[in-house]
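2024-03-11 09:14:02 INFO worker-7 job=invfold-0412 stage=load source=structure_tokens
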């Protein structure tokens, strides 16, 4: 069962680079659903069920405690924020990221499993890179949104560059 959780986690990490691919055509217009969110929800659900079934929660490292304290502070900061809606949205993002950290810490215990997750991210970068090259060859420039800059998948060119740049140390 742990292997199944690791496989779903692998797919989840592989979808992170193309998170901007919106699934409006599949789930309806106006939806904020992305493949990464759907797979992330499944991975988290499987992780929680498996952890409850096994009754074994890995011990947290100091870095995890600090990160979770930061997330808690971000959630509490909604109470005194000048822009509570934007603060809440950012806090929700931090909660989602902390759930991903927990999943990786809980199920990618071995070095080979962690390396496998880096390969998963690189596989997702290949999808984005392929779409980027394919779009360029097809003449789809994305300049309507970002004049003078080429992009793909509805990405902001800076986000696309950062997504691809994160893969460089993984590939190294």
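2024-03-11 09:14:09 INFO worker-7 stage=emit residues=172
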């Amino acid at each position: 069962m742990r292997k199944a959780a690791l496989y779903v986690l692998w797919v989840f990490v592989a979808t992170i680079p193309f998170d901007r691919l919106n699934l409006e055509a599949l789930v309806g217009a106006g939806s904020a659903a992305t493949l990464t969110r759907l797979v992330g929800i499944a991975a988290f659900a499987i992780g929680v069920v498996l952890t409850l079934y096994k009754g074994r929660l890995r011990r947290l490292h100091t870095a995890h405690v600090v990160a979770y304290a930061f997330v808690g502070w971000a959630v509490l900061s909604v109470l005194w924020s000048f822009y509570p809606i934007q603060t809440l949205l950012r806090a929700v993002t931090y909660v989602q990221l902390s759930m991903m950290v927990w999943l990786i810490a809980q199920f990618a215990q071995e070095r080979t499993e962690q390396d496998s997750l880096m390969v998963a991210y690189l596989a997702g970068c290949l999808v984005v890179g392929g779409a980027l090259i394919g779009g360029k060859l097809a003449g789809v420039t994305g300049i309507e949104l970002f004049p003078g800059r080429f992009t793909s998948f509805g990405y902001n060119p800076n986000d696309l560059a950062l997504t691809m740049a994160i893969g460089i140390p993984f590939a190294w």
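2024-03-11 09:14:09 INFO worker-7 stage=report msg="The chain has a mean pLDDT of 84."
2024-03-11 09:14:10 INFO worker-7 job finished
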